[in-house]
What we know:
This protein is α+β, with helices and mostly antiparallel strands. The chain is built from 11 helices and 4 strands, in the order ααααββααααββααα. The protein has a 4-stranded antiparallel beta sheet, with no helix packed on it.
Amino acid sequence: MYCNLRPAALLTALCLALTGCAVQQPDLERMTAEASPSGWQRQSLPAGSVETWSDFWNRWNDPKLTDLIGKALANNPDIETAAANLRAARATIISANSALWPSATAGADGSRRRSNGSWSNSVSAEASGSLTLNLAGSEFWKADAAYLNAESKAYTLEDVRAATAAETAEAYVNLRSAEAQLEIVKASLKNYMETADTSKWQFEAGTGAASEAEDALVQVASARARIPSLEASILQYRSALMRLTGLPVEKLGLEPTGVIPEPPVGMAMSFPAETIANRPDIRSARRAVESAVETLRSAKTDFFPTLSLTGNIGTTATAVSALGTAGTGVAGLAAALSVPILNWGSLVAAEETAAAQLDSAVATYRSTLLAALEETDNALSTIESTERRVEDLARAVDHAREAEKLSRHEYSAGIGDYSMLLSTQQSLLSAEESELTNRADRAIGYISLYRALGGAWGVEAAKEAREQQQAAAQ
């Protein structure tokens, strides 16, 4: 556990004041305010409710989707890597805190010597301890930095989990979309083949043109040529799910359905601004900046003197039974004060490195914040545009199917025009693909918005922050 310790001596307090104030804390709140939705391009983030985003994935009513996400969260290598990085960061807290406390060792030894024909015995037991502290508190700043870095890694883990869930859902939607598109192309191929048979029969009967029969074969070949690329896409999405879940495809149960999962109905499309600020990657970047500040403070304090205290206590005797008796005790205490002189070059370089790392952390925070706002804006724009197209595209498909049906009957009866039939078949294929693409884009838009909000973690964090604000206002 992290211990918030500070030197007690007056000299140490003075050094802390001098050196701590020398590092300017970046104004992250100002950066957040400047990039807040009120100053953003589309004003797409008004205040609102996020409760409808609770239990997000289960509300899609697709058991296979939730099953794949569960497998990904349990087995994804990126999550395992982030978890290992968190463990390592927490270990550095223990290491940094250990430097704030004295170290102690204990030992015992015995010897037997022969001199001038006689033997002599000697046994001893000793305990020793030491404490080394920078008088300006370098070790304390390092402990702060280690704690904040571990918090950053913890938020990074949550961000990786949210990203993995979103990427898995997107790959699943793309898989089902490709399966559905394959069925559409196969149905279109069947229609083209029927038209080719009819045009061939009419040509052989002398009622049709040879060019129509040849063009019908072109449409058949073109439709058939699309099938291999769609099948390849399906294999690619299945492989992506294998990578994300860390499991063989055979264990994922990805039987073709061609059914694109539908986003939950009645999802809120307005969010409080703190929802964005509570994204785990933004919080991770904020903690990284704070850790870099403490690291820079530690680097600045390395120029100050270091106090070393050592001490030992023990006992020496000729027999074990005599240890600790009067006259056998030994003790020592020493203090040393050291000041860096000839190694200032390395200290200056370390300080400059820490300052550069702080600048980099601040830039990363600002970049992460701007990316979060952009992702949220784009996701909302996608959802809005796809929602507006749903009804029109559905009507277009209905009319295209009816037009293709009528033109087929007319062409088969010899009263229709081949060019009209071809046009209606192409229109039907285009309408069905557009409607399918819109459904997939709509689903991916919601997935992208979930990711942009930081996943369920970010939503819950925003709810907790708002509840705290409401409780404080009462």
